[in-house]
Amino acid sequence: MTDKNCVFCKIVAGEIPSQKVYEDDKMLVFRDIEPKAKVHLLAVAKDHFKLLSEMDGERAELLKYMLCKIPEIAAENGCGNGYRLVINQGEDAGQTVFHLHIHILGGEILPW
Ligand code: AMP
Ligand code: ZN
């Protein structure tokens, strides 16, 4: 599923440029446009869904797939010494893009 008004669907479709670091048939990883750490990547599923709270069995498989790929992608992009994964769920967490994504933050010692 895609949403024609969704910025990350547009990035997946190549309609908005991004600095891609990894892509396969299920997921895309690119650099955050406003990095909050020396390395700040966003891992997005190619399939559009808005929120972690919309998780179901099929989407959980997709999330599992992404989590299995992330350690290698993080290590290849300067996070070999450690990194933090963040998923913002909803407005109180500051979610601004409603297409599920995992922040990968690292490349330095992170403040809590
Ligand atoms: P969240 O607050 O969890 O929804 O995170 C959304 C993230 O997407 C923010 O860190 C933004 O800086 C980032 N972002 C928004 N638009 C773009 C874009 N066109 N390219 C790369 N990152 C983006
Ligand atoms: Zn989307």
Order of helices and strands: HEEEHEE
The radius of gyration computed from the alpha-carbon positions, rounded to a whole number of angstroms, is 13 Å
Largest sheet, in brief, is: 5 strands, antiparallel
Number of helices: 2
Notes on the protein architecture:
There is one protein chain. This protein has 112 residues and is α+β, with helices and mostly antiparallel strands. It is 24% helix and 23% strand. It is built from 2 helices and 5 strands. The protein has helices spanning 7-13, 57-76, and strands at 20-23, 27-31, 39-45, 83-86, 101-106. The chain has a 5-stranded antiparallel beta sheet with strand order 1-2-3-5-4, covered by helices on one side. The termini are far apart. It binds adenosine monophosphate and zinc ion. The site of adenosine monophosphate has 12 residues, from loops.
Question: Could you give the topology of this structure?
Answer:
Layout: H1 7-13, E1 20-23, E2 27-31, E3 39-45, H2 57-76, E4 83-86, E5 101-106
Antiparallel strand pairs: 1-2, 2-3, 3-5, 4-5
The structure holds adenosine monophosphate and zinc ion (ZN).
